[in-house]
């Protein structure tokens, strides 16, 4: 069975949205190393999947690809580490929409720099998604401020932290957007999807080893898999999302990258259900607008 780029992008979107929710669920605001625990689990899952991919291609892989692909891997992993660190301070429904504007950045870079094309209708859909994500971030920010005002004892502390914490998803958006653009360049000229996927996953596994050494040996912190239930779920969905993502990006990057940014919608919806948060009528409207953009991209492919 052969999937279209749209189906692959939707699968990646769904998986990444769920991974965000599980990672947020498993994040302890008092754990200074929570972001490293998430990276460890992602790297572990990706390392296992890298071996599976190597077996599929009969180990026909040049290990030097890890070094060649490192600039892309570095931007992705650094952006994720920064975003996960922000989980300690931001609601998933606030940070995820802001972070997800990275897809629009990547799509614009591919469109302008690489000279890739899109139809007027696709441009309209991408614009709709982008504006929807920005509006959703604004609405989420306002809603977060309203909630904070209900608890006068925490106004000063949380308002200050909230303002600073928004820098985490913003930094993620910029780094991930550039990383996705570079990934498009590599896939267009230098790498097959399999080579890119394996290179990234092996690099992430190395990050896992380093992070484990740092937490256990240097910082003398405990690490038990039994305590990482939600990170395990998140790691599985994150790895699955990366698998679908690299093939979608290879097929139609200029449109697929912005489309996959709507993983924030999945995160917001499941965050409301699973993490017991609430949606306003304005937020529902914004989600519908973004969904229309997704429908247009899929229907006219």
TrEMBL record:
Indicate the transmembrane segments per the record: 35-55, 67-87, 121-140, 161-182, 197-218, 230-248, 254-275, 284-300
Asked if Membrane is a keyword of the record, the answer is: yes
Question: What InterPro entries does the entry give?
Answer: EamA_dom (IPR000620), EmrE-like (IPR037185), MFS_trans_sf (IPR036259)
Q: Which UniProt keywords apply?
A: Membrane, Transmembrane, Transmembrane helix
Q: What residues does the EamA domain cover?
A: 5-136, 200-297
Q: Which Pfam families match?
A: EamA
- Provide GO CC annotations from the record: membrane
Highest rank taxon of the organism: Bacteria
- Write out the similarity annotation: Belongs to the EamA transporter family.
Q: What is this protein called?
A: Uncharacterized membrane protein
What is the organism lineage in this UniProt record? Bacteria, Bacillati, Bacillota, Tissierellia, Tissierellales
């Amino acid at each position: 069975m052969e999937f279209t780029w749209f189906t692959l992008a939707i699968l990646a979107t769904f998986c990444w949205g769920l991974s965000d929710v599980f990672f947020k669920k498993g994040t302890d605001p008092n754990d200074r190393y929570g972001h490293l625990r998430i990276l460890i689990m992602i790297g572990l899952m990706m390392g296992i999947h890298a071996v599976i991919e190597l077996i599929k291609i009969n180990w026909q892989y040049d290990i030097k690809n890890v070094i060649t692909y490192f600039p892309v891997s570095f931007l992705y992993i650094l952006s994720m580490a920064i975003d996960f660190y922000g989980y300690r301070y931001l609601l998933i429904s606030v940070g995820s929409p802001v972070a997800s504007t990275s897809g629009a950045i990547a799509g614009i870079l591919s469109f302008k720099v690489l000279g890739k094309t899109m139809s007027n209708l696709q441009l309209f859909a991408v614009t709709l998604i982008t504006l929807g994500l920005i509006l959703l971030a604004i609405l989420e920010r306002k809603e977060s401020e309203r909630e904070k005002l209900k608890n006068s004892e925490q106004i000063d502390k949380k308002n200050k932290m909230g303002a600073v914490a928004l820098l985490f998803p913003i930094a993620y958006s910029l780094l991930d957007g550039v990383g996705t653009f570079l990934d498009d360049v590599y896939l267009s000229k230098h790498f097959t999807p399999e080579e890119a996927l394996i290179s990234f996953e092996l690099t992430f596994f190395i990050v896992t080893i380093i992070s484990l050494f740092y937490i256990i040996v240097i910082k003398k912190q405990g690490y038990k898999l039994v305590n990482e239930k939600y990170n395990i779920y998140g790691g599985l969905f994150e790895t699955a999302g990366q698998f679908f993502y690299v093939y979608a990006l290879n097929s139609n990057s200029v449109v697929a990258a912005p489309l996959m940014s709507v993983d924030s919608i999945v995160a917001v919806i499941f965050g409301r259900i699973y993490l017991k948060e609430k949606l306003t009528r304005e937020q529902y409207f914004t989600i519908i607008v973004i969904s229309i953009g997704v429908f247009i991209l899929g229907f006219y492919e």
